[in-house]
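Translate structure to sequence.
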């Protein structure tokens, strides 16, 4: 009788080990899909792609508006150069601000 209890305990331990190793490869979305359920997406997961598309559309529209606007080629190139330089400076300024925030939050600031 003692041998059967030991064998049962070893069998349960082996099964539990296999179950744990199988659980490591379990995909939650696939498991939920198998039983007819789905994970609820957060508001950010739904809104961010829409905002990205709106921003991209606005940028493309601005470029098209600049190109189509009635002006000479020289004036258009001059305006585009000025605006690109302004955008470049704003991006560099923002990049420097973000880097400064990272250094100050990590304690590595100079």
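Result:
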């Amino acid at each position: 009788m003692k041998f059967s209890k030991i064998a049962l305990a070893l069998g349960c331990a082996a099964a539990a080990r296999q179950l744990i190793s199988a659980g490591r490869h379990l995909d939650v979305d696939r498991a939920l899909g198998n039983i007819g359920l789905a994970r609820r997406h957060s508001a950010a997961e739904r809104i961010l792609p829409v905002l990205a598309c709106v921003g991209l559309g606005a940028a493309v529209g601005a470029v098209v508006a600049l190109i189509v606007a009635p002006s000479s080629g020289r004036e258009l190139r001059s305006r585009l150069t000025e605006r690109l330089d302004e955008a470049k400076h704003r991006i560099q300024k923002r990049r420097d601000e973000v880097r400064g925030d990272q250094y100050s939050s990590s304690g590595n600031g100079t």
